Amino acid sequence: MKFSIVVLTLNSAEFIAPCLESIAAQSFSDFEVVIQDAFSTDETINLINSFKIQFPSLKLNVCQFRDSGVYDAMNIALDNSSGEWIYFLGSDDRLFSDKTLELVSNQLSSNIDVLYGDVLSPHFGGRYNGKFTIEKIFSQNICHQSLFVHRSVFKKHGKFNTRFTVAADWDHNLRWFLDSTIEVVMVNPV
């Protein structure tokens, strides 16, 4: 399996459909979707199950476990994924185009450990956030929706530290970004 797309849900019925539709529309098909749901009480699971029926060829694995927050949920999903490359997509996010995974796959090589690019979001006022340097990563985090991380990075640097309730992704990004043995590549926007 090339990619594991991890989506976390908790009462995400309002926006999960566009997220899953953007995944199902991908021209590249060597991926799985791992949904970690923290026992939603709305229609989230019903919508996901309907989606599985509508797109039977989509490799969609739903895990329901109690978690102690977003980073614990990310760790649980990591444990339940099998892809070579891990990609975290918010349940209220969408892939940029139906060629996103194909374009990313074409950029990957055996010497790359992390590949990232910009994200487009009204939350950030448009495009976020260009090439990162050591100085920049100490003041700004790389958005997890822009990161494709090889599974070996998690083996080397561990999973997300759940002691950090707000910035465990930043902590994790700092660990691998500052490791000179990790090959990090930024994809320039098209």
Task: Indicate the topology.
Elements: E1 3-9, H1 16-24, E2 31-37, H2 44-54, E3 60-64, H3 70-79, E4 85-88, H4 100-107, E5 114-116, E6 119-121, E7 126-128, H5 134-137, E8 147-150, H6 151-157, H7 168-177, E9 184-186
Parallel strand pairs: 1-2, 1-4, 2-3, 5-9
Antiparallel strand pairs: 4-8, 5-8, 6-7
Summarize the model shown.
With 190 residues, the chain is of the alpha/beta class.
In quaternary terms, these chains amount to: single chain
- Which strand order spans the largest sheet, edge to edge or round the barrel? 3-2-1-4-8-5-9
Kindly provide the radius of gyration, computed on alpha-carbon positions and rounded to a whole number of angstroms.
Answer: 16 Å
Low-confidence stretches: none
Helix content: 25-40%
Number of DSSP strand runs: 9
Order of helical and strand elements: EHEHEHEHEEEHEHHE
Sum up the overall morphology in one term: globular
Largest sheet: 7 strands, mixed
Class inferred from helices and paired strands: alpha/beta
Counting H and I runs of at least 4 residues, what is the number of helices?
7
- Give the N-terminus to C-terminus distance in angstroms: 26 Å
- Overall mean confidence score, pLDDT: 95
β-sheet strand percentage:
15-25%
Explain what the structure shows.
This protein is an alpha/beta fold and 190 residues long. Helix content is 31%, strand content 21%. It has helices at 16-24, 44-54, 70-79, 100-107, 134-137, 151-157, 168-177; strands at 3-9, 31-37, 60-64, 85-88, 114-116, 119-121, 126-128, 147-150, 184-186. Strands 3-2-1-4-8-5-9 form a seven-stranded mixed β-sheet, with helices on both faces. The two termini are 26 Å apart. The model has no long low-confidence stretch (mean pLDDT 95).
